[in-house]
Amino acid sequence: MIGILGHAALSLAFVSAIFATWFYYRAARHGGEKNEAIANALFFLKGAFTLFASGLLVYLIFTHQFQYYYVYNYTSSDLQNVYLWAAFYSGQEGSLLLWVLSSFLVGLALIKWTSPEYRMPVMVFMGLTQVFLLSMVSGFPIPGWGDLGASPFRTLASEMPDAPVFQRNPDFVPSEGSGLNDLLRSPWIIIHPPVIFLGFAMMTVPYAFALASLWKRKYHEWIHAALPWTLGANLCLLTAIFLGGYWAYVTLSFGGYWAWDPVENASLVPWIFGMAGIHAMLIQKKHASAHKASIIFAILAYVTIVYQTFLTRSGILGDSSVHSFVDLGLYNHLLLFMLVTVAIGVGMLAYRYRELPEPEKESPLLSREFMMFSGAMVLFLVGLVIILGTSSPVLGRLFVDNPTPPDQQFYNNWSLPFAVLIGIMSVVTQYLWWKRHDAESLASALITPTLITSVITIAVVMLVNMDNPAYMIYLFAGVFALTGNGIIMLKMMRGNPRRIGGTLTHIGFAVLMIGILGAAYDRPMVDSQTREYNRAVAAGQVYDDDGFRVNQPVEFVELEKDRPKLIDGRYMVTFKSADVTEQNRPGEQEYEVLFEDVNSGSHFTMRPTVYPMLSNSSPGAVEWTVDPDVRTGWYRDIFMYVAGSSMVDREIERMNRENPGRFQSVDQLGPQMADHDPDETRTRVSRGGTVQIGDYDIAFQRFIYIEESELPDNSIIGVRAVLQLEHRETGERWEVRPQYILVSEDDEQYAYNPPEELPFAEEGSVRFGEVHPGSDEIELVIRGMEGEPEREWILLAAEHKPMISVVWLGTFLLMFGFSVAIMYRWADQKKREKLEQQGGELQQDDSDDDNLPVNGDPQSITTGKPDEHPA
Amino acid sequence: MRPRLIFGIAGIIVFTALVMVNFSQSISSYVDFEEATGMSGDNIHVVGTWDSSRPAEFSNETMTFTFYMKDEAGNSRRVTYPRPKPNNFEQADQIVVIGEMRGDTFVSRDMLVKCPSKYNDANSPELSEMQ
Fold this sequence. Notes:
Number of helices of chain B: 3
Strand order of the largest sheet of chain B: 2-4-5-7-6
Largest sheet of chain B: 5 strands, mixed, barrel
Radius of gyration of chain A: 34 Å
Shape of chain B: elongated
CATH class of the largest domain in chain B: Mainly Beta
Order of helices and strands of chain B: HEHEEEEEEH
Number of strands of chain B: 7
Number of strands of chain A: 23
CATH architecture of the largest domain in chain B: Beta Barrel
Number of domains of chain A: 5
Oligomer: heterodimer
Distance between the termini of chain A: 65 Å
Structural class of chain B: alpha+beta
Number of domains of chain B: 2
Strand content of chain A: 15-25%
Helix content of chain B: 25-40%
């Protein structure tokens, strides 16, 4: 019932979106208050229907209605409320719905704040993207063809009609859902997806503005309104990228914040193109050129969002990304969305291209507009390289059949020189931005930052023994960007601190750049023996049993409980304890590993966890995953996880025992008898006698009769056998008293003789199997006593990761810079609109106080001579 | 033509050529073990599934995980991996190993484990037993 309602609401939202777009088109084309009012009403209606449908979906999730495919697939009844909430957008359909909702909010803001000349055409394109997004989740019934897209309200029965369970009983409702992926059960899922979709929605705005400007042939003014939105979109994407990177770093075992995964690239490339667009818009604002570039980059930023959405959601990346979505049957849908987005953008651009303003004369090489334009082009090229790499399943076919994704090295090798260029250009452009220079004056202005940079770079190179020239150049560029932009910012702080946004983002970029270099100096923390071995491996001196050269270093250390090892030449590391804490998840194990710094004498404890991914597993084939612990420091982090342990091994064995047949243990291959447990030993021992089992002696001393009051009802008799266990080597002794109770029920007698756990072996037990009254012997069923007392060990994977905090710091500075810039540009735009309303005639550039006395000028603070404009 | 334009076009051509050459070198093709035997370099990608009929174990001495993998052509080969068994190994419906063939053993430096994803499969016990 609710499903039908939700289905209907989404279909109605889809229809409203179509009509809203149509009326926006009429309003944009022919004008008229009435058209506009109808269009807005339809737009609100669409929003209301979408909100209503989302509310219903949340309701279905919270009431655990597992007959719905979406609810079944992403939730279970044991899920905490926050994750039920997040489950709304944990799947593909729900995340599209979240995108629609974010776009709706952005649309509302546009209706309220966009100036009348652009408002209607902008809303046409906003509306159009809504039509496409909604069509993918609407489930709108098309007669003779089926439902449009994948509705989150479709039922399990309609999704898998061939399953026998539904053929037998069409009304079958599963009692439990399959649950949210364990890796997604992290607080970060609450914030990360909403931010990213808000970013996607905001990036639609520059696209819509660019197209509106082409349509209405108003090529100048749109950038003022689009600039704060583009900055906002970039802030959101950056925040989302940061959250995703941090999430990956602290919860996954690959130990990094970036892996050039297609899903990551999907938000990085639009961010880069957005950056290129922002720079082009700033040139246009300041210099009345680069109109084409502003429009092209604004279109590209959104087109790449749609393109990468296509790549990650169509299933085309199936093989190359471990976490891409799988095709929901939306392939053609997404393809159409992408083609239409591209066709409209390219078509309108081509149609108006000749008309677009062109600067009359070329700018000199050493002009800020040329420098900035080159910077935007470099960003554009970086974006292209990343797109090329991400598109390998498609574009790689040019070279090979069945192409694999490129090596990560491909991305790294190309982004390094580009980052160097960007770092240096950011300084040069900033210097030119605040004052006109010729080659000579620029050179003399740059002397100070160059000198400072050289000193710092040389010092660092010597300090860390850097021997890779590429890294040296990269470091130089990073430090140069930091000092150059830093000097400018210091001067600006004394002038007009409201405007430091741009400079601050450059500083953030520089800090980020320097921080990323730390990744080249990650090293596994191992003991000296392993380090020697790795050194030999690196020198090519190690050969395996088959005579082949070993080229993989060992990155793990085995630690026995309470036996410290010196690791990384600095830390005495001890495996203290392992416990099943079940703190966040069933079956979760927490390990306590003590690090003692032998240099400083300080110490700290790290607590990584390991847990079975129950919602991803079927009984008998339980997957285990690790949750690392990170110790954050100013200069370096220690990242560690437990890659394996005796406790996990025992758990796996236990689970296999409890689910025999389902899963063949990798450790227990070989013939298995149906009823015989290979770990079990049966033995007979007489009163007063001793048997040897493994490394133990078991002495059967005597019987004790169990008091009648302690016996369960209808027991006939109960005895305990007093056993003395002794470990032969160590002489340690334990006493156990397994019981044997004869119970009669319904005229049948049976024995109640549960296994008695052994105090020294986790999975060990002794069961009082049988009594042989004639011979005064008893039978014992023993398990877990072969060999010595269980050895407790862990495989420690620890990594020394320099400069991670610097990466985060750079990201925060970038975010802060964007925020300052948004506030400044927003206020600027408001001021401009107010002036317009007052009838003030505005020229292209004059309202922009970039041309106010140049307080930030590094060289001539006092002169404050405004720039002249070549245009 | 303006010199800067010529310079720009030349730059774009050189850039495109470099990127494409580098790109074509850094991707490779998914192959099977037979094909991998004749190939050089340690960036060979083989797709397959875990051959569960033969032993697989992590050795604490050599710190390598050894298992047998069946490629898409049905060849089964021993594969070594220099880390512990990946988390979701048993469940994987596809494994991609990256490395090189040495004799009859594939020495992998990396392994991608592709699982029946939450986005794709309804694999709860209740349903799968009934299917």
